Amino acid sequence: MITLNPSTTCGPSSWLLYKLIKPHLSTSPQLILTNPKTSAMASPKLTPFVAVVALMLAPSLAQLNPFFYTFTCPQLPFIVLNTVSQALQTDDRAAAKLIRLHFHDCFANGCDGSVLLEDVPGVIDSELNAPPNNGIQGLDIVDNIKAAVESSCPGIVSCADILALSSQVAVVLSGGPAWIVPLGRKDSRIANRAAAANLPSPFETLDVLKSKFAAFGLSSTDLVTLSGAHTFGRSRCLFFTGRFDNFNNTGLPDPTLDAAYREQLRQLCATPVTRVNFDPTTPDTFDKNYYVNLQNHKGLLQSDQELFSTPGADTTAIVNRFAASQLLFFIQFGNSMIKMGNLSPPPGTPSEVRLNCRRINPSTTTLHDVI
Ligand code: HEM
């Protein structure tokens, strides 16, 4: 039996997470998901005997599962909870920054911490330099979480898992749903800048957005659901001021943007890099208001409003369902986050548990390296 004892760990807020996750600890085998990333990495040099033994051991390596660190780092959920709550005390956007990092990580090369790697000329062509990551923030928060985790469980927990777990904690602390986070990802030793450059853009049509999600096995429902993360956080004005006048060379504003809201936004946008709330009603709370805003033509980005306003789109009904039921949205959000979090790097991607999330380990480090 698996026990988590919050009294051995860190402070009163631990109880919140403990209460949230305890009921699920003895259940949810359905959440144990297969991770083709590691299962595809068996060395071709293994003898048959070793291969058989390796296959017997494989489940612990080859699957993401919520109990991955139960014995090696039992305090992990509480450490993450405490560091994310601390970050939120000084930064209203900490939660938004963390979940966006996880999304950008998973959509470039799978969820492997690659988004966090800084440029090293000739070695790492950083994803942070790809245009969609321009202005991405929150690496300092990840550093703090990693430092706290390393001091309790050195060399055990991957940066990719820290992103996945801290995203869930960030959503919970902002009033949103809890879900069981499958764990056991490894960090890549490479970055994939080209893939990062292909992240969805706020100027793309719904068809393009849908096809970019479909390329990862994510449906229209997943697209609408995950876009619901724009219930908190901010966007810089440069991503939506093109909707104010002469939208798509029509000589007119975007007709799907509420006129009064457009003028409010125009006032708020002092400079192209001014940051404006995604959700004008409850800017830092994770709730269903994003969808109600779309119904009221108050989606901030073109890519947001298209989900509701594209004629004949299957996404409109999904927006309406979530606008009507926060419970439905919350349940689906957990499901879609697990689906996104299960995206794995291509087979053969060299990986490890990184000691510093921004840099690959020195090549002599063998700790937890995956062959
Ligand atoms: C559907 C395609 C998506 C597009 C086109 C898109 C685009 C954007 C843009 C342009 C920004 C503003 C960036 C800036 O000003 O620097 C942003 C922010 C944000 N995005 Fe998305 N996004 C998408 C999907 C998602 C998903 C799937 C998530 C998470 C599950 C997410 C979470 C966020 C959050 C929380 C912020 C605010 C970050 C902050 O305040 O620092 N987005 N997104």
UniProtKB/TrEMBL annotation:
Pfam families: peroxidase (PF00141). Ca(2+) 1 binds at residues 105, 110, 112, 114, 127. Substrate binds at residue 200. Ca(2+) 2 binds at residues 231, 279, 282, 287. The record marks 100 as: Transition state stabilizer. It is found in: Secreted. GO terms for cellular component: extracellular region. SUPFAM superfamilies: Heme-dependent peroxidases. It comes from the Eukaryota. The keyword Cell membrane does not apply. One of its GO terms (molecular function) is heme binding. Binds 1 heme b (iron(II)-protoporphyrin IX) group per subunit. Binds 2 calcium ions per subunit. CDD domains: secretory_peroxidase (cd00693). Removal of H(2)O(2), oxidation of toxic reductants, biosynthesis and degradation of lignin, suberization, auxin catabolism, response to environmental stresses such as wounding, pathogen attack and oxidative stress. These functions might be dependent on each isozyme/isoform in each plant tissue. Belongs to the peroxidase family. Ascorbate peroxidase subfamily. This is Peroxidase.
